[in-house]
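Complex record, two chains
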Amino acid sequence: MNEIQVTKVGIVSCSGEEIPDGTLCRIACRKVLDALRPGETVTICLPLFIAGGEEERSFAAKYPTITVDGCEKLCTAKATEMLSGKPGKSLLVPEILKRHGLPAPTKLRHFGLEEEPAVKAVAEEITKAVDEVLAEA
Amino acid sequence: MDKAKKVVVLPCSGIGKAYGALARETAYELAERVRPGVATLTCLPLLVINDPAARKLVTDHPVIAIDGCPKECARKSVEALGKKPAVSYQAIRFYTAHKDLKPEGVAQLNEAGQKLARIAADELAATVDRLAAEEAVAQVSKPAGSPTSSRPGVGATSTSEVCGDCGLEISDTADSKSALPAKEEL
């Protein structure tokens, strides 16, 4: 039987326009996609599960997926499971910040030095999850 | 009556393109600087999971959808609730109207993109005011017990115009039975 080699992990980010933790999700996910694991990660805009076609909805079937949520409503994990496929791992930003003893961001935009430790902590946890998913595949 | 003063601004939530970031920055400018207390944000993914509070907000108030790409997730997510946005834009139109300001960056917009968002939000202020005023009039003229939304998808008409000042193409969908003319004032 042929085995499919998994070389990329799908990252689905909360967009959370209404909450600072949503902005933190976006920036941390982008950091992983662009700088920390650029060759091993891909992403999709969450609303494309509704607005897109079959190709978008099959995202979680094509890639082992990590969801990153900004609040307890867990839109990203729920929408991915409901509309595409069960995520391989689900991360929640407030839990990550709590584990690292970091305060939640208070701004919706224009993050700077003050928010950098939170961005770094979340990006590192996503990176760790990417490595684990690839190792398990 | 507070309900009558809200206009929901729903931007693209993508993290893949600068125009998505421009859409979001424009929405933040409207909600935080240009029309705070009137322009209201909600998270687009809340509509994807059919969150009751987000659904009610969008159903009860006029919506301005600002999309970052032709897939138009923001507009389609509103339409998936059985409602049409009062007005919808594609953020690239903001750039074509101000070609000296090229937006770049996805996680964070560059300075030109931020300036473009400020300009776009200033230009959208009149639209927010008009929609809020229409909603207020509709609330006053509505018989007791009637639905709260004045902009149902059914019976709506659509027009497409170009702003005389900035050249933005505006797709305006308005209830044909609205108390005020549906004509876009920009």
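Note: Confidence is low (pLDDT under 50) at residues 145-186 of chain B.
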